Description:
Blueprint: H1 2-31, H2 33-37, E1 47-56, E2 59-66, E3 69-76, E4 79-82
Antiparallel strand pairs: 1-2, 2-3, 3-4
Amino acid sequence: MSTFISFLQAGFALAVTLGLVGLAAYAARRWGPAGLISIKKPSDRRIQIVESLTLDPQRRVVLIRVDAEERLLLLGEGRMLDAPTAAAPKA
Length: 91
């Protein structure tokens, strides 16, 4: 009977511990560093990420807006490769 109570107590302690770890993970995702950094309102920011597309595990394309201008960036391989601007059409 003592062994059964020990197993029951260990199982309960494990369930409580896993519950606390899960609660901490949920709280970190919900109110983590990203939530603490965003003090400014989104409308007050000058830089916004419009869209992001993953090309492969090493590279992604990001469309950003700075004030009223949009820029396309290629990110990957430990550096930023800025997409060339299109030349103006000749008249």
